[in-house]
Amino acid sequence: MDRELGNPGAVMTSPPLRLGPVDAGEVLTLQRAAYVPEARAHENIDLPPLLETFEQTKEALGDPACFAWGVRESGRLVASVRIVVDGGAGLVGRLIVAPDRQGHGLGSSLLLAAESAMPSSVTVFRLFTGERSVGPLRMYRKLGYVETHRTPEEHYELVHFEKPRVRTDGTVR
């Protein structure tokens, strides 16, 4: 099985690989490390990514509608993202980067590579993040995501974004 994506971009030392159930333990470990700062920022240790179990991660990575990609450096999983196909939408979730690798463009490069690898039926990408997630908010806007609405949580709001898929020739699909 060919597990590599195309052009990884300058910040990735190796091309993204397709992740599956066998990677669940590493993904969950990375996820917990990456979401602790988000939990602190939002004063909520009960964020779904921190409560997700090994079995739930394994199930998500085995779902045929879920396209999960990761980046390894010297064998270590340092970033991953999941995109679930729901009709014509690609629902982006769990974009995570190891804390010691954040801020170097790895998340942006991985997300762009994953978007380009999605089936042609995907015409729009959707995602959300917490209003206090300063880095992710900046990154999503920089990558062309536009805020569509907000939904309240107990002590903060979730910011929802959308981005039309753009063909390689620059036209919107």
Q: Topology, pairings included?
A:
Layout: E1 17-18, H1 24-41, H2 48-51, H3 54-62, E2 66-73, E3 76-86, E4 89-97, H4 106-116, E5 124-130, H5 134-142, E6 146-152, E7 157-164
Parallel strand pairs: 4-5
Antiparallel strand pairs: 1-2, 2-3, 3-4, 5-7, 6-7
Helix pairs in contact: 1-3
Describe it.
This protein is of the alpha+beta class and 173 residues long. Helices cover 29% and strands 30% of the residues. The protein is built from five helices and seven strands. A seven-stranded mixed sheet has the order 1-2-3-4-5-7-6, sandwiched between helices. β6 and β7 (157-164) form a beta hairpin. The longest helix has 18 residues, at 24-41. It is globular and about 35 Å long. The two termini are 28 Å apart.
Number of separate strands: 7
Q: What's the multimeric state?
A: single chain
Low-confidence stretches: 1-10
Element-level helix/strand string: EHHHEEEHEHEE
* Rg (C-alpha, Å): 15 Å
Q: How much β-strand is present in the residues?
A: 25-35%
Helix fraction by DSSP (H/I, runs of at least 4): 25-40%
Strand order of the largest sheet: 1-2-3-4-5-7-6
Tell me, rounded to a whole number, the average pLDDT.
88
Helical segment tally?
Answer: 5
- Which class do the helix and strand fractions yield? alpha+beta
